[in-house]
Amino acid sequence: MSVIALALAIALQVGPPDAAMVPPPPTAADVQRDQATLAEVNAVIDTMHEAASRADGPTYFAQFAPWARFIGTDAGEHWTLEQFRAYAEPYFAQGKGWTYHPHDRTVMSVGDVFFFDEKLTNAGYGELRGSGVLLRDTDGRFRIQQYVLSFTVPNDASKDVVAAIKAHAAP
């Protein structure tokens, strides 16, 4: 029996999806709840960016879960929240924050886990990317579990960028 014939025989045995497997269309209440949840998620991310721009450490770190991870642009920046706080708070104490203007954000979810990616614009670095994961905390608020900040590298420049990174890392 040919592979095509075998695939056709299997498909005919399986048949169309069972009606019980197809979820019902969302109700108006489902859509409204989903929009409200999406607004909550976006508000946490926006508050994080706004607080960083104002060098407002307490508000900034309140957007993160206590066990959160922050992964920065440097290879060594794979921090727990406490490690990241130790790095950032001296800057915030001097009134020095950082401003990234988010745009083109996409938020997706699987169950109660929300993940996002966003494009960021910064005066010094140009275009960057941010991505992360949020969950509801025990108090019912969404909090960032992980945030990743990364540089964008044009494909045409990637060999030069990799060579610069290797040269920098060489002893």
Short description:
By secondary structure, this protein is of the alpha+beta class. The chain contains five helices and six strands; from the N terminus they run αααββαββββα. The termini are far apart.
Overview of this protein structure:
There is one protein chain. This protein has 171 residues and is of the alpha+beta class. Helix content is 41%, strand content 30%. The protein contains 5 helices and 6 strands; from the N terminus they run αααββαββββα. It has helices spanning 3-14, 28-54, 57-62, 81-93, 158-169, and strands at 64-71, 78-80, 101-110, 113-122, 126-136, 142-151. It has a 6-stranded mixed β-sheet. A hairpin with a 5-residue loop joins strand 5 (126-136) and strand 6 (142-151). The protein starts with a helix and ends with a helix.
List keywords for this structure.
single chain; 171 residues; 41% helix; globular; alpha+beta; 6 strands; 6-stranded mixed sheet
Order of helices and strands: HHHEEHEEEEH
Strand order of the largest sheet: 2-1-6-5-4-3
Which spans have pLDDT < 50 for at least 5 consecutive residues?
none
The average pLDDT value, as a whole number, equals 88
Distance between the termini: 62 Å
Structural class: alpha+beta
What percent of the residues sit in helical stretches (DSSP H or I)? 40-55%
Q: Nearest-angstrom radius of gyration?
A: 22 Å
Number of strands: 6
Which outline best applies?
globular
Summarize the biggest pleated sheet. 6 strands, mixed
Alpha plus pi helix count: 5
Strand content: 25-35%
